[in-house]
Design a protein that fits this description.
The protein is of the alpha+beta class and 363 residues long. Among the domains are: 116 residues, Immunoglobulin-like (Sandwich); 131 residues, Sandwich (Immunoglobulin-like). The chain has six helices and 18 strands. The longest helix is centred in the first third of the chain and has 43 residues. It starts with a helix and ends in a 9-residue tail after the last strand. Keywords: Membrane, Transmembrane, Transmembrane helix. This is Pre-rRNA processing protein.
């Protein structure tokens, strides 16, 4: 009996002890499964994450601004803001792609070509070399003008040349030397004759495009270019008498912007109705703005014996200044037979000889 009682007491003691340990383990020594065992027995779903996230983002200042409640509360403000942004963008597009190109095109079309220099060389019956330096004036936004062909007309609407205008930016327009065909020699000669004493207008006509802020805008050029008068002043100086032959230097003063190279040419200085030739300009005739000194070969003294007062430059100048004699010039060039034997009346000025239409085909 005692043994059975002992066993029963031992069982009770063990059960109490186990109860104490299990309670103690739950309260103080809770154990957690490992990651591997948890992953093997538990399926993790997005619901768990969403539940956690929703709890975390339930804070008012972290609320999604595109939620329905937010949209309903601020719908009008959002629409007004979007309209304002759209209007600003449309205005900017209108300014940059419409208004600015149109204004620039109008400025380019309005500005006149201001001629600075023009060079003419290697002239013959059909062609000449031409180079031009000119300015179109101040143009905003530094536009790019595309290359185009400019037709050159006189005031009488005669088309005399076609010039290739290269692409250029901004103000300066430099046309490199190019060989061009003379389309109307008679009109060109008349233009040159008129240019001796008068300013002359020519017109450049053509169509091209103006590129402004990455946009090309079509434009039609109809530009007036004013050529300043050459205003030739001719006088004789440095007279030498050797072996019965008098030689001298002819000074020809020109203004304007035109430089012309007539090549090897011959021009006779002829006096009055008697048509007495006193000298010849022989050689390479080049005229540029400013003073041009050209060799003048006077005729033998015996041929001007009846005109002794014209041998020295002082007497020559005085006679012409007082109007007692008129001077004509006839000339020819081996480069331009159409200039041959042109006889032109001179204009008398107080100090020295001014040939009104000296070298009538000069342009």
């Amino acid at each position: 009996m005692s043994s059975s009682t002992d066993m029963h007491m031992r069982e009770m003691t063990d059960s109490k002890t186990m109860g104490v340990f299990s309670t103690h383990g739950i309260e103080n020594h809770t154990s957690y499964p490992s990651e591997d065992s948890y992953a093997a027995t538990h399926t993790y779903t997005s619901t768990d994450y969403n539940n956690t996230t929703n709890k975390e983002t339930s804070v008012p200042f972290l609320a999604n601004p595109f939620q329905k409640d937010y949209w309903r509360q601020h719908k009008k403000k959002i629409i007004v803001f979007q309209i304002v942004i759209l209007i600003i963008l449309l205005i900017l597009l209108l300014i940059f792609f419409v208004i600015i190109p149109v204004i620039t095109r109008k400025v380019v079309a309005r500005n006149e070509f201001a001629l600075q220099k023009i060079f003419l060389t290697n002239i013959d019956n059909n062609n000449l070399n031409i180079s031009v330096s000119q300015s179109i004036g101040s143009v905003p936004f530094n536009p790019r003008i595309s290359a185009f062909t400019a037709k050159v007309y006189t005031t009488s609407n005669d088309r005399i040349l076609d010039i290739a205008i290269p692409q250029f930016h901004g103000e300066n327009v430099d046309v490199p030397a190019q060989r061009v065909q003379i389309l109307n020699m008679a009109a060109l000669g008349a233009l040159g004759a008129n240019l001796i004493n008068n300013d002359v207008n020519i017109f450049l006509v053509g169509s091209t495009t103006v590129r402004v802020l990455s946009r090309d805008v079509g434009i039609h050029f109809n530009k007036t270019v004013r050529l300043a008068a050459l205003d030739l002043q001719a006088s004789v100086a440095s007279v030498n008498k050797t072996n019965g032959v008098a030689t001298a230097v002819a000074n020809i003063q020109t203004s304007g912007q035109v430089s012309v190279d007539l090549g090897i040419s011959t021009f006779n200085l002829v006096f009055g109705s008697s048509r007495s030739t006193i000298g010849k300009l022989v050689g390479a005739v080049k005229l540029a703005p400013g003073n041009n000194s050209l060799p003048l070969i006077l005729t033998p003294l015996i041929s001007v014996a009846t005109l002794p007062q014209f041998v020295d430059s002082a007497s020559l100048t005085a006679a012409i200044a007082t109007g007692r004699v008129s001077v004509t010039v006839a000339g020819s060039s081996n480069n331009a037979s159409t200039w041959a034997n042109q006889t032109i009346q001179a204009v008398q000025r107080p100090v020295n000889v001014t040939s009104a239409q000296l070298l009538s085909a000069i342009v």
